[in-house]
Specification:
mainly alpha; 77% helix
């Protein structure tokens, strides 16, 4: 259980959803293939390795703030966590390169972004941007088999900004957070969702397969579901509600992936991505998301 908490296994399905979404947006379909299998395994390694590295870097702060993380509680040694993170990150790049050379390049850039986030930059304004970049690159890795500028611009900026928002929202989670910072995070995440809503109709990217009205309804529901936890945390800024809001926002990435897959590849593909949500929800009952 200590290692499950270290690697944030409850969030792992959201990383797989990013890759599936990226592939669906770029190609217009999602079918079993070696590329999908290998990039799915690669993103699991990269995400888990990044989470382990995060706790290695934050071990002293976690202990001081009593955040309940496994290294600070002595459930996993800092040395073991660092070694595991290194192997997972290296394995992720290797698996991505086996899937497609360009996917390997994207994975290497993703590792660089993970390393930059887990540095003194984390506590600067660049920290949330770097976390957003990690999530955006995750989706781009899924696009590597048919990478094109329109697909990247339709998806990556919105995912980056949404992730940047909830990362800013989570900054002082253990202390309760300042309402101004929480409001800023909420607004930034909303801006990311607005981009994703409007991109199919105003950018020269992949052609959406849902109707204009259907798209607005789909993204309206997605926005409500993704931001509901952050909204509760903004109204009552307690550590418990802020942490719950961040967890909902992270799983909200999976709902965003469903909406994107549906928008660009159709309902059947969106449903395939949605099948990852029950896995994430069940894991979240035992393994904290943050």
């Amino acid at each position: 259980m200590g290692y499950a908490r270290l690697l944030r296994l409850s969030n792992a399905p959201t990383a797989v959803a990013d890759v599936w979404m990226g592939h669906a947006v770029a190609t217009g379909y999602l079918e079993p293939s070696w590329f999908v299998v290998l990039t799915s395994c690669a993103t699991l390694c990269l995400y888990s390795g990044g989470m382990a590295m995060n706790d290695v870097v934050d071990a002293a702060r976690d202990a001081a703030e009593d955040r309940g993380r496994p290294i600070a509680q002595g459930l996993v040694s800092r040395c073991s966590a660092k070694r595991l993170a290194t192997w997972l990150l290296a394995g992720g790049v290797g698996l991505a390169a086996l899937a497609h050379p360009l996917a390997g390049v994207v994975a290497a850039v993703l590792v660089a972004a993970i390393a930059a986030y887990n540095s003194p930059l984390k506590r600067t304004p660049l920290g949330p941007l770097l976390m957003g970049l990690c999530r955006a690159l995750n989706g781009v890795m899924g696009m590597a088999v048919e990478l094109n500028r329109g697909a990247v611009l339709s998806v990556a900026p919105g995912v980056l900004v949404y992730t940047c928002g909830f990362t800013l929202f989570a900054r002082d989670e253990s202390l309760g957070g300042r309402r101004t910072q929480l409001a800023a995070g909420w607004l930034v995440s909303l801006a990311g969702l607005v981009w994703l809503t409007l991109a199919p109709y105003f950018l020269d990217g992949p052609t959406p397969v849902v109707t204009w009205l259907g798209g607005w309804l789909l993204w309206g529901v997605t926005t409500l579901m993704a931001l509901r936890g952050m909204t509760a945390g903004l109204i009552r800024p307690t550590p418990k509600l802020i942490g719950r809001g961040v967890g909902i926002a992270i799983r909200g990435l999976l709902l965003i992936d469903v909406a994107l897959a549906t928008t660009y590849a159709g309902p059947s593909v969106g449903l395939a991505v949605l099948c990852l949500l029950p896995i994430a929800s069940v894991l979240a009952l035992r393994v904290p998301s943050t």
